[in-house]
Amino acid sequence: MPDAEPTPRTRRLTSVHLLSRAARPRLPRRAVVALPAVVALTLAGLLSGCGAGASGTAAGSDSVPPYYAETIAIRPPAYDSPLNLSIRDTATGGETAALRTGPPYQSIGFVAATGKPNWWIVGAQPWHPVNYDNSAQPAKLYLATAEATTMHGSPFTEYMLTPLPVAPLPAGQLINGTAGLSIISQLAAATVSPDGKRLALVITQGDTYQVSVYPVTGHAATRTWSDRVDAMSMSFTWGFSLTWLSDSKTLAVGMATTNAMVDTTAAVRYLNAASPASSLAEASRTVTLSFPAKNAQPGTPDGCYGVPVATSDGQKVLCSGAATSPVTAGGATEAGIWVFSARTGALTAAWNEHSVCCALSGTNVPRILWVSPHGTLVIASGMSNGNQGAQLFLRTADGTLQQLPWKGLIHRPYQAGIVEPSIAW
Fold first, then answer.
1. Partners of residue 49 on adjacent β-strands
2. Which of 28, 116, 238, 328 is the most exposed place for a label (fewest CB within 10 A)?
């Protein structure tokens, strides 16, 4: 497993490189053009704050963070360019800042959410792509923040990239969506606690995965717990998620194979982050997600395609997945978002179920990008067969889908696959 970097490397950056468009004052732009007025007004009622420096109260309320972070190409063509971190307005899609690190890390490979609004974890990489793919390059972790301050008595939003105390390592899942078996240590998930004091990581190596907790300002992991992947599922790639509960003491570790077929291994482990370093199984409470019988009627949820995500109030678990369906010539099936009890793992609801034609792919099934603390609001792509992964939607508490402004997918020439940019709230 990777060691922490030496003390001199964990200094705060003295400068952040901004694109030319950021020559304007770095104050949040208001919602003006990207959404129809009625939709913008509806979103405004759900937003958790008025600016990038809004207080952290959103961590305990069901409202949509006003800003998100996304990886954006520095120059065209997008499929063959290093990436910046773009901070954007949720309601309009408008950019408020574009950040990047200096050499040797020319590109931002991914961005991950944290338990604190307007804080994100990013992975900066050297830029040495192979066939338009730069994912093999090791990622150096930074904390991206947007904090309200003043300058000469005037309100000002300060955007920062601060190195985190972890040596660079490959980050397959966070860049490509899977954490396949490898003899090399790989970063599979990362987040920061709601109080902003602790960094949690999942690192995989071979059939072993390790959960580590670091002080954000420290230089070494304070506690580590490890376990092994289910031997019956070792041939599949795995996915992991991390959610700090609102008490900043409990860490929910979601895990599942990312096989498109029925998945019976999806689970969440609720880890007491104050417990001594040991086996993850011994230090946590495991909740295995359960599904109805295989012979259930068509349309019944049948497994998780995406990694389970726990709500920060500790009450629910959500995952995207497939449902049972009659055999058809086109191989049609059903997909949606499934909701479970965090106490028992029992299925409690099926949201926005829709038909998926033909072979399953990552863009056919919903991709959960953000879940509110109580699980009443969800932001996801792939919410219908018509849009697949090309559009983002906010699912409101009453089940209504509201489209969010988003540039969508990146198409790589001469390749069948398409890429969803890394995005986080």
1. none
2. 328
